[in-house]
Amino acid sequence: MSLRLLGVAALLISLTLYLPVITLFAPFWELELLYLWAELFKATEFGPALAATLVSTLASLAVALGLSYLLMGALVFTPAYQRFARQLPLLLAVPHLAFAAGLYLLLSPKGWLERLVAPMDVGIWVQDGYGLSLAVALGIKESWFLCWMIWAQLQQSSLADQFLVAQCQGYQRGQIVRQILVPQLLPKLRWPLLAVAAYSLSSVEMAWVLGPTHPPTLAVLAWNWMLDPMVEQRDLGMALTLLLMVLMLALSLTIWQLPRVFSGIVPSGRRRVGRLRIGLPAKRLLFMLHLILGLLILLWSFTHSWFYPALLPGRWSLNAWQSLAVEPLLNTLSLGLVSALLAIALVLLVLEAGIKQTGWILLPLFLPVLPLVVGQYQISLFVGMPPNWSAVLLAHLLWVLPYVYLVLKPAYLALPHEQLLTARTLGLNQTDLFMRVKLPLLLRPICAAFALGFSVSLAQYLPTIFIGAGRVETLTTETLSRFAGGDKRLLGAQAMALLAVALLAYMLAQRLPHIVYAKRRAMH
Amino acid sequence: MSKRPLLPALLLALPFASITHAQDWNAVESEARGQTVYFNAWGGSDVINNYIEWAAGRVAEESGVQVELVKITDAAAVVTRIATEFKAGNTNEGSVDLMWVNGENFRRLKQEGLLAESWAQDLPNAALVDYSLPVTTDFSIPTEGQESPWGGAQLTLIYHPDRLETPPADAQELLALAKKQPGTLAYPRVPDFHATSFLKQLLLDLSDEDSALYQPVTDAEFERVTAPLWSYLDQLHPLLWREAQAFPQGIAQMHSLFADGELLTSLSFNPNDAANLVRSGTLPEGVRSFGFERGMLGNIHFVAIPGNSKSKAGAQVFANFLLSPEAQLRKADLDVWGDPSVLDSSKVSGPSARQLKERDPAALPAKTPWIAEPHASWVEPLEKAWLARYGAGS
Q: Which residues constitute the domain of residue A215?
């Protein structure tokens, strides 16, 4: 079969996987939406939940933007910059849920931080009513993503030269960052910011662990309501899910206007003092935080009993580790492996077929998760798909595909034309060209796409639990059910397993090109 | 007609009846062999999960039935799933074969006709059940053989004598304690199962076990009976942990807060829980359990088979095994799970009978009176009213 035909097939498969995006608005017709929304506004929980959702989403955007501004501002084009860029994917590979679990162990009432400063009553705690702790956690976690996107932008553009010119003219770092980098980068950061907003708005797992409980955020509330025994309550959950879409639309419009804030500034040419010095200590502090969270998770996983105000466990035990089941691990590995490989194959085939309109593949990144999962569930019911591993695999692909595409498309477009032309003149047909020239050249980005795709599949909670009917357990669903179970020791062991698998998979994907091309230095 | 000929007829009929039963059961057993049973049960406790895995292993080797435990976080969600399946026309290939259930969820399953009917009383081990327990009604709703009893439970408060000398004997004393030591008491957020149970306990205590609570709810009765509860909670909430602006997410978090000294009491629906939790290192040594003087809310939990299960025979065989003395004894063992048995110790022979009666010093004293669950229809309006009053924080 020709590559082109395969490409068209891949396109059709991808489009089928994206059906939930298309049917997203179907419930608008089925439900008496206006009536339901009126009911929604009457529910006592709605107002505070909306407030907490807006605060946590907007504040998380602000924290993520602020942190990436400070960090990247202090680091760009310094000797430490490339090292930081190499550390970023590792930080990205830390699962949201493991990070949240660590923060929970650190900041929960009578948690480690409170023990550290005992007997002072600091009153720092997670799950505050405004969703601030959730916002900070989301903000930190997403700041790595933004830094990474900024790094990718800086690789492509002429900003490095402009930076150098400005430096030669005696401008200081702070002013260059504010007047040259920020105005040019912000418009390009709108899409990543939309993705951050969509995640913050609809994350159920992070909000469950760190978010307010009384009432919870809208996403958690919608999720709870949709599981309610009463039909009316479930419809209300659906209406709330659709409201999340409306909120996302409003957020998108706001984010789109963001670059305007800076467009009116006319530089005066005056040199101002400013070196963005807090960036470096902030980076060190954040790295330290990750380390502490990792250690806390590890400590709790080996605990038998550990009561306030002890700073270390009183008695140790292997019980938590012994209680871990193998099946979630196997499911996580197989789902991650197969979905990432499938997504890579689909994306490459679609690109190779020369199909131009492919931007829609990114859509799921900018939509709230909950309505998409509901769409997937209804489609799976409609076609009578049993809740099993394959169904979950198809569900995961909706989020693995766009991330894989995000990495592969620029790499594919950047393939060196001269080499491809040379290969063509030497008589290679399209299949050989693809297999023998393009694929080897793409190995590094393919490995990067694999690492990202794997970690995206690993992190999926809602599609796994909803489409799999709870039958397909993964490290992520197990970690969350351990959290619900409330036993910090089991939570520690499960979160540690989640973290370890994520980091190991990432490091393996990093090493792979070096192993494959051990004897071909130029390919490194 | 004289009564004389009836007796021999009855005597003749009895063995036949049991023979047909035995034959029926043999048929069920042979049909069950090789079937896979998806058992949906609350999966938040390892102790319970391990016990179920053990039972699954035993029934696999004994009867060739493959039991797959599906760990769920909320039984209501499973009810919803079953209802959705039926609505979508899936009437014999359901995703659930057996589920752990009681109360409101059972009411809904039964009311909507989603359950396999009239099987539980025919299980061979049903003969060993202690019928002095309320095993044939579930929150005042007759079970009619649509669910088989699995274990008993009683609402239990946990405290540490070092930190709380005399535990409160009723709702008013609890309020007095909250006034004396504000911020040290809590209960989970409604509609958490334990939270709702705690509300019912308070309601029963404050209303002197009003008989209306055992009838289907009406608006007028609800208004009248719950009025004292709301005025009580209005006083209590500002005195609770975090002034009731935040609630523990479940009893597990309550245990943890209690163990770290943040709370004076914790809550459980298993009278043996405190003893279990000390053994597992979750709670410190020396904790004790207490109940209100009037008694504590108690109920039976059951297993039920959805009408669209394709492994009904396998599900029955597993339900029967769960009722066996072997399984019930192991379940009651504090080192295993510590869930009270539903068997009549006089119908079980040997040392097991004595084991069935023992209680650990940390457990709820056996003399604590048992208050039956109110009619299941009260749950929903109770939760709704609570959420309407307190659901938004303040």
A: 31-317
Nearest to A129 by CA among B311, B180, B247: B247
CATH number of A351's domain: 1.10.3720.10
Q: Check: CB of residue A137 under 8 Å from CB of residue A125.
A: no
For the domain made up of B156-298+370-390, the CATH class stated in words is alpha beta
- Tally of helices (H runs) and strands (E runs) in chain A: 28, 2
At B295, give phi and psi (nearest 5°).
Answer: 130, 170
- By the CB < 8 Å criterion, does A234 face chain B? yes
SS3 B379: helix
Q: What pLDDT does B7 receive?
A: 44
For the residues A463-478, what does the mean pLDDT come to?
Answer: 91
Task: Identify the three-state secondary structure at position A517.
Answer: coil
Q: Which residues contact B94 (CB under 8 A, 6 or more apart)?
A: B82, B85, B306, B307, B308, B309, B310
What CATH code is assigned to B29-151+301-355?
Answer: 3.40.190.10
Report the alpha-carbon distance of residue B42 to residue B49 in Å, rounded. Answer: 9
Closest residue by Cα to residue A100 from A68, A138, A143:
A138
Across chain A, what does the average pLDDT equal? Answer: 89
B188: closest CA of chain A, how far (Å): 10
Same fold, B29-151+301-355 and B156-298+370-390: yes
3-class state of residue B176 by DSSP = helix
Q: What mean pLDDT do residues B314-331 have?
A: 95
Segments of A204-360 assigned E as strands: 303-305, 315-316
d(CA A278, CA A71): 8
B residues 323-362 lying closer than 8 A (beta carbon) to A: none
CB contact under 8 A, A485 and B108: no
A348/A253 same-domain check = no
Quote the CA–CA distance of A126 and A336 in Å, as a whole number: 31
- CB of A490 within 8 Å of a chain B CB? The answer is yes
Domain count, chain A: 2
Residue A362, burial from CB neighbour count under 10 angstroms (0-12, 13-18, 19+): middle
| CA A93 centroid distance within chain | 9
Tell me how far apart the alpha carbons of residues B375 and B299 are, in angstroms, rounded to a whole number.
12
Taking the C-alpha atoms of residue A17 and residue A11, their distance in angstroms, rounded to an integer, is: 10
How do the domains of chain B map onto residue ranges? 29-151+301-355, 156-298+370-390
Beta bridge partners of A23: none
Are A440 and A490 in the same domain? yes
Model confidence at B5, pLDDT cuts 50, 70, 90, reads very low
- The Cα A375–Cα B131 span in angstroms is 47
> How far is residue B126's CA from residue B194's CA, in Å, rounded to a whole number?
28
Q: How many CB atoms lie within 10 A of CB B5?
A: 9
pTM of the model: 0.83
**In this predicted structure, what is the pLDDT of residue A309?**
87
CA torsion through residues A216, A220, A223, A224, sign: negative
Name residues whose C-beta falls within 8 Å of residue A453's C-beta, 6 or more positions apart in sequence: A336, A339, A340, A343, A344, A400, A403, A404
Q: What are phi and psi of B88, to 5 degrees?
A: -80, 10
Q: Could A469 and B95 be called an inter-chain contact, meaning their C-beta atoms sit closer than 8 Å?
A: yes
| Three-class DSSP category at B305 | coil
